[in-house]
Specification:
- The protein is of the alpha+beta class.
- The protein has 16 helices and 15 strands.
- It has helices spanning about 35-50, 75-90, 105-110, 110-115, 130-145, 150-155, 175-185, 190-200, 205-220, 235-240, 250-260, 270-275, 300-315, 340-350, 360-380, 425-444; strands spanning about 5-10, 25, 55-65, 70-75, 95-100, 160-165, 285-290, 290-295, 320, 350, 355, 385-390, 395, 400-405, 410-415.
- α9 crosses α11 and α9 (about 205-220) packs parallel to α15 (about 360-380).
- The longest helix is centred in the C-terminal third of the chain and has 22 residues, at about 360-380.
- The two termini are about 35 Å apart.
- Residues about 265 and about 280-295 have low confidence and may be disordered.
Length: about 450
Protein backbone atom coordinates (compact mmCIF):
# COMPACT_ATOMS: atom_id res chain seq x y z
CA UNK A 1 0.00 0.00 0.00
CA UNK A 2 1.20 3.53 -0.76
CA UNK A 3 3.00 5.41 2.01
CA UNK A 4 0.26 8.04 1.66
CA UNK A 5 -2.34 5.50 2.81
CA UNK A 6 -2.27 4.30 6.42
CA UNK A 7 -4.48 1.61 7.93
CA UNK A 8 -5.60 2.72 11.39
CA UNK A 9 -7.40 0.53 13.93
CA UNK A 10 -9.83 2.59 16.01
CA UNK A 11 -8.42 0.96 19.13
CA UNK A 12 -5.42 -1.33 19.55
CA UNK A 13 -4.12 -3.30 22.49
CA UNK A 14 -2.47 -0.28 24.15
CA UNK A 15 -3.67 2.74 22.20
CA UNK A 16 -6.40 4.22 19.99
CA UNK A 17 -6.70 6.28 16.84
CA UNK A 18 -6.17 9.52 18.77
CA UNK A 19 -2.99 8.33 20.52
CA UNK A 20 -0.75 10.16 18.09
CA UNK A 21 1.93 12.81 18.11
CA UNK A 22 0.17 14.47 15.20
CA UNK A 23 -2.84 16.68 15.89
CA UNK A 24 -5.97 16.48 13.73
CA UNK A 25 -7.35 19.94 13.00
CA UNK A 26 -10.73 20.65 11.40
CA UNK A 27 -10.19 23.68 9.14
CA UNK A 28 -12.52 26.66 9.11
CA UNK A 29 -13.95 25.83 5.66
CA UNK A 30 -15.49 22.65 7.12
CA UNK A 31 -18.98 22.89 8.55
CA UNK A 32 -19.58 22.47 12.29
CA UNK A 33 -20.26 19.03 13.76
CA UNK A 34 -23.74 17.99 12.62
CA UNK A 35 -24.31 14.23 13.00
CA UNK A 36 -27.63 13.39 14.63
CA UNK A 37 -29.62 10.29 15.66
CA UNK A 38 -29.68 8.55 12.29
CA UNK A 39 -25.93 8.67 11.63
CA UNK A 40 -24.82 8.00 15.21
CA UNK A 41 -27.19 5.09 15.81
CA UNK A 42 -26.10 3.63 12.47
CA UNK A 43 -22.45 3.95 13.53
CA UNK A 44 -23.11 1.96 16.72
CA UNK A 45 -25.16 -0.65 14.85
CA UNK A 46 -22.47 -1.10 12.21
CA UNK A 47 -19.80 -1.68 14.85
CA UNK A 48 -22.09 -4.02 16.81
CA UNK A 49 -22.55 -6.15 13.67
CA UNK A 50 -18.80 -6.66 13.16
CA UNK A 51 -17.69 -10.29 13.24
CA UNK A 52 -15.00 -10.75 15.88
CA UNK A 53 -12.77 -12.72 13.50
CA UNK A 54 -12.75 -10.15 10.68
CA UNK A 55 -11.64 -6.57 10.18
CA UNK A 56 -14.30 -4.01 9.28
CA UNK A 57 -13.64 -0.97 7.10
CA UNK A 58 -15.58 2.08 8.29
CA UNK A 59 -14.50 4.67 5.73
CA UNK A 60 -11.64 6.92 4.79
CA UNK A 61 -10.13 10.05 6.25
CA UNK A 62 -8.58 12.48 3.77
CA UNK A 63 -5.86 14.63 5.35
CA UNK A 64 -3.10 17.02 4.40
CA UNK A 65 0.06 17.49 6.45
CA UNK A 66 0.32 21.16 7.33
CA UNK A 67 3.00 22.44 9.74
CA UNK A 68 3.23 19.19 11.67
CA UNK A 69 -0.55 18.65 11.85
CA UNK A 70 -3.11 16.68 9.86
CA UNK A 71 -5.62 19.07 8.35
CA UNK A 72 -8.82 17.08 7.82
CA UNK A 73 -10.05 17.61 4.27
CA UNK A 74 -12.80 14.98 4.27
CA UNK A 75 -14.25 12.68 6.93
CA UNK A 76 -14.36 15.13 9.83
CA UNK A 77 -17.93 14.18 10.86
CA UNK A 78 -16.94 10.53 11.22
CA UNK A 79 -13.66 11.39 12.95
CA UNK A 80 -15.38 13.65 15.49
CA UNK A 81 -18.06 11.00 16.09
CA UNK A 82 -15.39 8.40 16.83
CA UNK A 83 -13.75 10.82 19.29
CA UNK A 84 -17.11 11.28 21.06
CA UNK A 85 -17.86 7.54 20.96
CA UNK A 86 -14.56 6.53 22.56
CA UNK A 87 -15.03 9.18 25.24
CA UNK A 88 -18.62 8.11 25.96
CA UNK A 89 -17.65 4.46 26.28
CA UNK A 90 -14.91 5.34 28.75
CA UNK A 91 -11.79 5.00 26.60
CA UNK A 92 -9.22 7.70 27.33
CA UNK A 93 -8.32 9.81 24.29
CA UNK A 94 -5.57 12.35 23.90
CA UNK A 95 -6.64 15.94 23.08
CA UNK A 96 -5.43 15.59 19.49
CA UNK A 97 -8.63 16.75 17.78
CA UNK A 98 -9.20 20.49 17.49
CA UNK A 99 -11.26 22.90 15.41
CA UNK A 100 -9.69 25.93 13.76
CA UNK A 101 -11.21 29.19 15.01
CA UNK A 102 -14.11 27.45 16.80
CA UNK A 103 -13.61 28.16 20.48
CA UNK A 104 -16.90 26.58 21.57
CA UNK A 105 -16.10 23.29 19.83
CA UNK A 106 -12.62 23.16 21.37
CA UNK A 107 -13.89 24.04 24.85
CA UNK A 108 -16.51 21.28 24.60
CA UNK A 109 -13.98 18.64 23.50
CA UNK A 110 -11.49 19.65 26.23
CA UNK A 111 -14.22 19.27 28.87
CA UNK A 112 -15.93 16.24 27.38
CA UNK A 113 -15.60 14.09 30.52
CA UNK A 114 -17.41 16.66 32.66
CA UNK A 115 -20.10 17.00 29.99
CA UNK A 116 -20.64 13.23 29.85
CA UNK A 117 -20.94 13.13 33.66
CA UNK A 118 -23.21 16.19 33.50
CA UNK A 119 -21.07 18.11 35.99
CA UNK A 120 -22.59 21.43 34.94
CA UNK A 121 -21.16 23.25 37.95
CA UNK A 122 -17.68 22.74 36.54
CA UNK A 123 -18.63 23.99 33.08
CA UNK A 124 -19.38 27.30 31.46
CA UNK A 125 -22.50 26.17 29.61
CA UNK A 126 -22.49 29.28 27.43
CA UNK A 127 -19.26 27.98 25.87
CA UNK A 128 -20.64 24.51 25.09
CA UNK A 129 -21.13 23.74 21.38
CA UNK A 130 -24.70 22.47 20.98
CA UNK A 131 -24.00 20.05 18.09
CA UNK A 132 -21.31 18.18 20.01
CA UNK A 133 -23.44 18.20 23.17
CA UNK A 134 -26.34 16.69 21.22
CA UNK A 135 -24.04 13.99 19.81
CA UNK A 136 -22.87 13.06 23.31
CA UNK A 137 -26.47 12.75 24.51
CA UNK A 138 -27.42 10.48 21.61
CA UNK A 139 -24.39 8.23 22.05
CA UNK A 140 -24.79 8.05 25.83
CA UNK A 141 -28.45 7.09 25.45
CA UNK A 142 -27.58 4.25 23.05
CA UNK A 143 -24.67 2.98 25.19
CA UNK A 144 -26.78 2.96 28.37
CA UNK A 145 -29.48 0.67 26.98
CA UNK A 146 -29.94 -2.52 29.07
CA UNK A 147 -28.99 -4.88 26.24
CA UNK A 148 -25.75 -3.05 25.36
CA UNK A 149 -22.68 -5.27 25.93
CA UNK A 150 -19.74 -2.92 26.49
CA UNK A 151 -17.03 -5.60 26.56
CA UNK A 152 -18.20 -7.16 23.30
CA UNK A 153 -18.52 -3.71 21.68
CA UNK A 154 -14.99 -2.70 22.69
CA UNK A 155 -13.64 -5.99 21.35
CA UNK A 156 -15.34 -5.35 18.03
CA UNK A 157 -13.99 -1.80 17.97
CA UNK A 158 -10.55 -3.38 17.79
CA UNK A 159 -11.54 -4.83 14.41
CA UNK A 160 -12.73 -1.51 12.99
CA UNK A 161 -10.38 0.19 10.53
CA UNK A 162 -10.29 3.63 8.97
CA UNK A 163 -7.91 4.47 6.12
CA UNK A 164 -6.05 7.74 6.54
CA UNK A 165 -5.18 9.02 3.07
CA UNK A 166 -2.79 11.94 2.67
CA UNK A 167 -3.25 14.16 -0.36
CA UNK A 168 -0.06 14.91 -2.33
CA UNK A 169 2.05 17.86 -1.36
CA UNK A 170 1.04 21.23 -2.88
CA UNK A 171 -2.57 20.14 -3.42
CA UNK A 172 -4.99 23.08 -3.57
CA UNK A 173 -7.04 22.10 -0.50
CA UNK A 174 -9.84 24.60 -1.01
CA UNK A 175 -10.37 23.37 -4.57
CA UNK A 176 -10.11 19.73 -3.47
CA UNK A 177 -12.69 20.25 -0.71
CA UNK A 178 -14.99 22.07 -3.12
CA UNK A 179 -14.91 19.13 -5.54
CA UNK A 180 -15.44 16.53 -2.79
CA UNK A 181 -18.24 18.54 -1.24
CA UNK A 182 -19.98 19.14 -4.57
CA UNK A 183 -19.81 15.49 -5.56
CA UNK A 184 -20.89 14.38 -2.10
CA UNK A 185 -18.81 11.25 -2.46
CA UNK A 186 -16.41 9.49 -0.14
CA UNK A 187 -13.61 7.23 -1.27
CA UNK A 188 -15.13 3.75 -1.27
CA UNK A 189 -13.54 0.39 -0.49
CA UNK A 190 -13.51 -0.60 -4.15
CA UNK A 191 -11.62 2.62 -5.00
CA UNK A 192 -8.91 1.65 -2.51
CA UNK A 193 -8.93 -1.93 -3.80
CA UNK A 194 -8.42 -0.70 -7.35
CA UNK A 195 -5.45 1.45 -6.31
CA UNK A 196 -3.96 -1.46 -4.37
CA UNK A 197 -4.27 -3.94 -7.25
CA UNK A 198 -2.92 -1.42 -9.76
CA UNK A 199 0.09 -0.82 -7.50
CA UNK A 200 1.06 -4.48 -8.06
CA UNK A 201 1.66 -3.70 -11.75
CA UNK A 202 5.03 -2.17 -12.49
CA UNK A 203 4.34 -1.12 -16.08
CA UNK A 204 2.41 2.13 -16.68
CA UNK A 205 0.82 0.77 -19.84
CA UNK A 206 -0.49 -2.26 -17.94
CA UNK A 207 -1.91 0.00 -15.25
CA UNK A 208 -3.71 1.94 -17.98
CA UNK A 209 -5.16 -1.29 -19.35
CA UNK A 210 -6.23 -2.38 -15.86
CA UNK A 211 -7.92 0.99 -15.35
CA UNK A 212 -9.87 0.75 -18.62
CA UNK A 213 -11.16 -2.75 -17.87
CA UNK A 214 -11.97 -1.92 -14.26
CA UNK A 215 -13.80 1.25 -15.32
CA UNK A 216 -15.91 -0.65 -17.85
CA UNK A 217 -16.81 -3.38 -15.35
CA UNK A 218 -17.54 -0.98 -12.48
CA UNK A 219 -20.41 0.63 -14.40
CA UNK A 220 -23.08 -1.98 -13.65
CA UNK A 221 -25.70 -0.34 -15.88
CA UNK A 222 -26.17 -1.71 -19.38
CA UNK A 223 -23.81 -4.21 -20.99
CA UNK A 224 -20.07 -4.16 -20.42
CA UNK A 225 -19.28 -4.11 -24.14
CA UNK A 226 -20.83 -0.66 -24.42
CA UNK A 227 -18.44 0.76 -21.83
CA UNK A 228 -15.43 0.21 -24.12
CA UNK A 229 -15.49 3.30 -26.31
CA UNK A 230 -12.87 3.96 -28.97
CA UNK A 231 -12.54 5.24 -32.51
CA UNK A 232 -14.42 3.01 -34.96
CA UNK A 233 -15.18 0.61 -32.05
CA UNK A 234 -11.65 -0.79 -32.37
CA UNK A 235 -11.22 -1.82 -28.71
CA UNK A 236 -14.73 -3.27 -28.47
CA UNK A 237 -14.22 -5.41 -31.55
CA UNK A 238 -10.72 -6.51 -30.52
CA UNK A 239 -12.06 -7.80 -27.22
CA UNK A 240 -15.55 -9.05 -28.12
CA UNK A 241 -15.26 -9.70 -31.85
CA UNK A 242 -16.90 -8.03 -34.82
CA UNK A 243 -20.39 -8.95 -33.54
CA UNK A 244 -19.60 -7.51 -30.08
CA UNK A 245 -20.86 -10.63 -28.34
CA UNK A 246 -17.87 -12.99 -28.14
CA UNK A 247 -16.35 -14.19 -24.85
CA UNK A 248 -13.39 -11.94 -23.87
CA UNK A 249 -10.01 -13.71 -24.20
CA UNK A 250 -8.08 -15.28 -21.32
CA UNK A 251 -4.72 -14.13 -22.62
CA UNK A 252 -3.40 -10.89 -21.08
CA UNK A 253 -1.26 -10.20 -24.16
CA UNK A 254 -4.38 -9.98 -26.32
CA UNK A 255 -5.64 -7.13 -24.18
CA UNK A 256 -2.31 -5.38 -24.67
CA UNK A 257 -2.83 -5.49 -28.42
CA UNK A 258 -6.48 -4.50 -28.15
CA UNK A 259 -6.16 -1.60 -25.72
CA UNK A 260 -2.64 -0.24 -26.11
CA UNK A 261 -2.92 0.03 -29.87
CA UNK A 262 -5.88 2.41 -29.57
CA UNK A 263 -5.02 4.14 -26.29
CA UNK A 264 -4.05 7.40 -27.98
CA UNK A 265 -7.00 7.53 -30.36
CA UNK A 266 -9.57 10.17 -29.54
CA UNK A 267 -13.29 9.46 -29.48
CA UNK A 268 -14.41 13.07 -29.14
CA UNK A 269 -15.72 15.59 -31.64
CA UNK A 270 -14.23 18.82 -32.89
CA UNK A 271 -15.88 22.18 -32.17
CA UNK A 272 -16.70 22.34 -35.89
CA UNK A 273 -18.69 19.09 -35.52
CA UNK A 274 -20.44 20.22 -32.34
CA UNK A 275 -21.77 23.50 -33.78
CA UNK A 276 -23.13 21.82 -36.91
CA UNK A 277 -26.95 22.09 -36.85
CA UNK A 278 -27.24 18.42 -37.84
CA UNK A 279 -24.96 17.17 -35.02
CA UNK A 280 -26.43 14.45 -32.81
CA UNK A 281 -24.99 12.76 -29.75
CA UNK A 282 -24.26 9.11 -30.47
CA UNK A 283 -26.56 6.86 -28.44
CA UNK A 284 -24.93 3.76 -27.00
CA UNK A 285 -27.78 2.57 -24.80
CA UNK A 286 -29.06 0.37 -27.58
CA UNK A 287 -32.33 -0.62 -29.23
CA UNK A 288 -34.53 -3.66 -29.48
CA UNK A 289 -36.50 -4.64 -32.56
CA UNK A 290 -38.58 -1.70 -33.74
CA UNK A 291 -36.13 0.91 -32.40
CA UNK A 292 -37.62 0.90 -28.90
CA UNK A 293 -35.31 2.69 -26.52
CA UNK A 294 -34.13 0.52 -23.62
CA UNK A 295 -32.03 0.86 -20.49
CA UNK A 296 -30.78 -1.95 -18.30
CA UNK A 297 -30.02 -1.88 -14.58
CA UNK A 298 -28.10 -4.49 -12.62
CA UNK A 299 -29.56 -6.44 -9.71
CA UNK A 300 -26.36 -6.01 -7.64
CA UNK A 301 -23.84 -3.24 -7.04
CA UNK A 302 -20.17 -3.36 -8.02
CA UNK A 303 -18.66 -4.21 -4.58
CA UNK A 304 -20.78 -7.37 -4.40
CA UNK A 305 -19.89 -8.23 -7.98
CA UNK A 306 -16.19 -7.98 -7.06
CA UNK A 307 -16.73 -10.47 -4.24
CA UNK A 308 -18.61 -12.86 -6.53
CA UNK A 309 -15.79 -12.57 -9.07
CA UNK A 310 -13.23 -13.31 -6.36
CA UNK A 311 -15.12 -16.52 -5.60
CA UNK A 312 -15.02 -17.39 -9.29
CA UNK A 313 -11.28 -16.66 -9.33
CA UNK A 314 -10.67 -18.83 -6.26
CA UNK A 315 -12.50 -21.70 -7.93
CA UNK A 316 -10.79 -21.30 -11.32
CA UNK A 317 -7.28 -21.20 -9.88
CA UNK A 318 -7.87 -23.65 -7.05
CA UNK A 319 -6.88 -21.09 -4.40
CA UNK A 320 -6.86 -22.37 -0.80
CA UNK A 321 -5.81 -20.88 2.54
CA UNK A 322 -2.25 -21.74 3.58
CA UNK A 323 -3.81 -22.87 6.86
CA UNK A 324 -5.76 -25.81 5.52
CA UNK A 325 -8.55 -25.55 8.08
CA UNK A 326 -9.27 -21.86 7.32
CA UNK A 327 -11.59 -20.53 4.62
CA UNK A 328 -10.03 -18.33 1.99
CA UNK A 329 -13.39 -16.63 1.21
CA UNK A 330 -16.44 -16.51 3.47
CA UNK A 331 -19.62 -18.30 2.41
CA UNK A 332 -21.68 -15.21 3.17
CA UNK A 333 -20.49 -12.21 1.16
CA UNK A 334 -20.33 -8.85 2.92
CA UNK A 335 -19.35 -5.75 0.95
CA UNK A 336 -18.20 -4.10 4.18
CA UNK A 337 -15.41 -6.69 4.26
CA UNK A 338 -14.32 -6.21 0.65
CA UNK A 339 -10.76 -5.10 1.42
CA UNK A 340 -10.32 -7.64 4.19
CA UNK A 341 -11.48 -10.49 1.92
CA UNK A 342 -9.09 -9.56 -0.89
CA UNK A 343 -6.26 -9.06 1.58
CA UNK A 344 -6.85 -12.57 2.93
CA UNK A 345 -6.63 -14.08 -0.56
CA UNK A 346 -3.48 -12.14 -1.46
CA UNK A 347 -1.75 -12.65 1.89
CA UNK A 348 -2.64 -16.27 2.64
CA UNK A 349 -3.79 -17.74 -0.68
CA UNK A 350 -2.07 -20.70 -2.32
CA UNK A 351 -2.66 -21.46 -6.01
CA UNK A 352 -1.27 -24.96 -6.27
CA UNK A 353 2.04 -24.75 -4.43
CA UNK A 354 2.60 -21.08 -5.24
CA UNK A 355 1.85 -18.25 -2.82
CA UNK A 356 -0.20 -15.44 -4.36
CA UNK A 357 1.78 -13.00 -2.19
CA UNK A 358 4.91 -14.09 -4.05
CA UNK A 359 3.59 -12.85 -7.39
CA UNK A 360 1.04 -10.10 -6.81
CA UNK A 361 1.60 -8.75 -10.31
CA UNK A 362 0.31 -11.97 -11.85
CA UNK A 363 -2.65 -11.94 -9.48
CA UNK A 364 -3.62 -8.42 -10.61
CA UNK A 365 -3.45 -9.43 -14.28
CA UNK A 366 -5.38 -12.67 -13.81
CA UNK A 367 -8.03 -11.06 -11.63
CA UNK A 368 -8.84 -8.18 -14.01
CA UNK A 369 -9.21 -10.66 -16.88
CA UNK A 370 -11.43 -12.83 -14.69
CA UNK A 371 -13.46 -9.74 -13.78
CA UNK A 372 -14.21 -8.89 -17.41
CA UNK A 373 -15.04 -12.48 -18.41
CA UNK A 374 -17.30 -12.90 -15.39
CA UNK A 375 -19.06 -9.60 -16.13
CA UNK A 376 -19.66 -10.69 -19.73
CA UNK A 377 -21.36 -13.90 -18.52
CA UNK A 378 -23.25 -11.99 -15.82
CA UNK A 379 -24.71 -9.63 -18.43
CA UNK A 380 -25.72 -12.53 -20.65
CA UNK A 381 -27.23 -14.96 -18.17
CA UNK A 382 -28.37 -12.97 -15.12
CA UNK A 383 -31.59 -10.97 -15.20
CA UNK A 384 -31.59 -7.19 -15.43
CA UNK A 385 -34.28 -4.61 -14.91
CA UNK A 386 -35.24 -3.29 -18.34
CA UNK A 387 -36.93 0.06 -18.89
CA UNK A 388 -38.58 0.59 -22.27
CA UNK A 389 -41.08 3.07 -23.73
CA UNK A 390 -40.65 5.47 -20.80
CA UNK A 391 -41.81 2.77 -18.36
CA UNK A 392 -41.16 3.86 -14.77
CA UNK A 393 -41.46 0.35 -13.29
CA UNK A 394 -39.50 -1.66 -15.83
CA UNK A 395 -39.60 -5.43 -16.21
CA UNK A 396 -37.24 -8.37 -15.86
CA UNK A 397 -35.25 -9.27 -18.95
CA UNK A 398 -32.58 -11.77 -19.92
CA UNK A 399 -31.01 -10.59 -23.14
CA UNK A 400 -27.71 -10.74 -25.00
CA UNK A 401 -26.14 -7.91 -26.96
CA UNK A 402 -25.85 -8.12 -30.75
CA UNK A 403 -24.86 -5.65 -33.44
CA UNK A 404 -26.31 -4.54 -36.77
CA UNK A 405 -24.89 -2.34 -39.50
CA UNK A 406 -21.42 -2.07 -40.95
CA UNK A 407 -18.16 -0.43 -39.82
CA UNK A 408 -18.73 2.97 -38.16
CA UNK A 409 -22.52 2.64 -38.58
CA UNK A 410 -22.82 -0.37 -36.26
CA UNK A 411 -25.56 -0.20 -33.63
CA UNK A 412 -26.27 -2.54 -30.71
CA UNK A 413 -29.55 -4.35 -30.26
CA UNK A 414 -30.72 -7.02 -27.82
CA UNK A 415 -32.30 -10.48 -28.13
CA UNK A 416 -33.22 -13.06 -25.53
CA UNK A 417 -30.17 -15.02 -24.37
CA UNK A 418 -30.02 -18.51 -25.88
CA UNK A 419 -30.55 -21.57 -23.72
CA UNK A 420 -31.18 -24.07 -26.55
CA UNK A 421 -29.22 -27.23 -27.05
CA UNK A 422 -27.88 -28.18 -30.46
CA UNK A 423 -30.67 -29.23 -32.82
CA UNK A 424 -33.55 -27.78 -30.77
CA UNK A 425 -36.21 -25.41 -32.10
CA UNK A 426 -36.06 -21.72 -31.27
CA UNK A 427 -39.39 -22.02 -29.44
CA UNK A 428 -37.65 -24.27 -26.93
CA UNK A 429 -35.21 -21.44 -26.23
CA UNK A 430 -38.11 -19.02 -25.64
CA UNK A 431 -39.58 -21.38 -23.05
CA UNK A 432 -36.22 -21.79 -21.32
CA UNK A 433 -35.64 -18.03 -21.31
CA UNK A 434 -39.03 -17.42 -19.71
CA UNK A 435 -38.34 -20.14 -17.14
CA UNK A 436 -34.96 -18.61 -16.30
CA UNK A 437 -36.48 -15.16 -15.92
CA UNK A 438 -39.21 -16.54 -13.68
CA UNK A 439 -36.78 -18.42 -11.42
CA UNK A 440 -34.28 -15.58 -11.14
CA UNK A 441 -36.87 -12.87 -10.60
CA UNK A 442 -38.53 -14.98 -7.90
CA UNK A 443 -35.21 -14.98 -6.04
CA UNK A 444 -35.15 -11.17 -6.15
Amino acid sequence: MSNLVTELHIIGEDNNIFDTDMEYIIPLYQRAYAWEDKQLVQLIEDISDVAEDDNYYIGSLIVSQQSGRYEVVDGQQRLTSLYLLLSCIGIKVKPTLTFACRDKSNYTLRNIEELILENRSKLDMDRIESGIQRGIRILSHELEKPDFDRDSFVKKLGKVIVYRIEVPENTDLNRYFEIMNTRGEQLEQHDILKATLMSYLRDDAERCMFDKIWGACSDMTGYVQMHFISKNNAVREAIFGSEWNGMPPKNWQKYKKAIQGTAQETTGQSIRDLIDRNFQVEDDEGYVDGDIRVRFESIIEFPYFLLHTLKVYVNLYGVVHEKKDSKIVDDLLDDKKLLDTFNRVVSYGLAGSEKIAGNKEEFARNFIVCLLRTRYLFDKYIVKREYANDSADGEWSLKSLYVSGQQSNKKPYYRNSKFTRSGEWASTNDRRTKANIMIQSALR
